[in-house]
Description:
Blueprint: H1 2-18, E1 26-28, E2 34-36, E3 44-50, H2 59-70, E4 75-81, H3 93-104, H4 123-131, H5 142-154, E5 170-173, E6 179-183, H6 189-200, H7 202-209, H8 223-234, E7 246-250, H9 253-266, H10 268-273, E8 286-293, H11 299-315, E9 319-323, H12 325-332, H13 337-343, E10 349-358
Parallel strand pairs: 3-4
Antiparallel strand pairs: 1-2, 3-5, 5-6, 7-8, 8-10, 9-10
Helix pairs in contact: 1-4, 2-6, 7-11, 8-11
Amino acid sequence: xxxxxxxxxxxxxxxxxxxxxxxxxxxxxxxxxxxxxxxxxxxxxxxxxxxxxxxxxxxxxxxxxxxxxxxxxxxxxxxxxxxxxxxxxxxxxxxxxxxxxxxxxxxxxxxxxxxxxxxxxxxxxxxxxxxxxxxxxxxxxxxxxxxxxxxxxxxxxxxxxxxxxxxxxxxxxxxxxxxxxxxxxxxxxxxxxxxxxxxxxxxxxxxxxxxxxxxxxxxxxxxxxxxxxxxxxxxxxxxxxxxxxxxxxxxxxxxxxxxxxxxxxxxxxxxxxxxxxxxxxxxxxxxxxxxxxxxxxxxxxxxxxxxxxxxxxxxxxxxxxxxxxxxxxxxxxxxxxxxxxxxxxxxxxxxxxxxxxxxxxxxxxxxxxxxxxxxxxx
Length: 378
């Protein structure tokens, strides 16, 4: 019997982790019908495991308020009742739904009861936990401190596991299917509200989602998409409309390969240490090279140009990384002059930075930002 359980757990784990997208999953609705999460493409989702007899059950009111606030603009809450935590979700899904509509007048969809941990856990939640592990409770919050103390008595290392810890754990999913953040039941609903508002705004969502990508798929970016990215760039603000930059887009794979050979000869140890090394531009299949006046000036405009291009790329499912090291190498190494010659940089200009661009092969987490450096003068 133990072998059977372990086998089931392994299968469920593989199903969840190997999925390429949240839209690969199917779930059962409250009538037992299969529902593909692909039906929710283009919507912002909040996926929640709930219970009707929990101290956090009043959060149904707050969830319904979020639903009513954002639903018309493309927001959905997917509610999955779960009886694994203190057996606080007893009864059938029909009884649970009746309770929730009678007591909280919920309008968002409820799905069939599931397990979120263990041998019979839903593959959807296997995937969600793999995307966003447990980040800890806020120990400055009374409820967070209580949950930490309670769970640590049961398991001293509970916080090192990605398991769902209790009812009303929430996962926020962007319009393009990224699992943006995991919220514990003690997290403030005002923080979740603010995050949803960002995800509902395509510009803010792209800004918050952009990361420096250093692993790319072996797939060149289509010419038309590169044109759109550059178009967004050259429409960035420019002082007095001087547009003091020159842009060169490299689609020639052989040119990238040839200059990489020069780099490899000059940096053998560095190349040897990187087992995934393909080219000197973080393995990106395409490059956007930005030049500015050799005598100085234009750096601010070029920076605005680059930011526009990186955000445009993000919104189109592409990844970017702003590179300085390869620029220094190209400018200093005579054997790499052929690369600069192919860029056809006008006299009086110099290569300032390179944007690696391609289809990302990683989803790095955001690095912390220091909000204490911001002050509002009123």
